[in-house]
Amino acid sequence: MPYKNIAIVDDILTTGATADELSRLLKRSGAYHVQVWCLARAAPTGR
Fold first, then answer.
1. Who's near 12: CB < 8 A, 6+ residues apart?
2. Which residues of 14-46 are buried (b: 16+ CB within 10 A; e: fewer)?
3. Could you give the CA distance from residue 19 to residue 37 in angstroms, rounded to a whole number?
């Protein structure tokens, strides 16, 4: 992996599951530091 510091940019974070899985994949592929940036976060539903 040519880049070791990576930022994932997303429009909305709901559960975080997709960002979490992508972060794990990038780390396994050699990324050193992964940040997740999102513009909005969905309100919890109370479940």
1. 38, 39, 40, 41, 42
2. eeeeebeeebeebeeeebeebebeeeeeeeeee
3. 10
**Token pair listed for 5:** 């510091």
Reported as a single tens digit per residue, the pLDDT across 24-46 is: 999 999 999 999 999 999 988 87
12 lies in some domain: yes
Is residue 47, in this structure, part of any structural domain at all?
no
Q: What are phi and psi of 2, to 5 degrees?
A: -70, -25
Task: Determine the pLDDT at residue 1.
Answer: 72
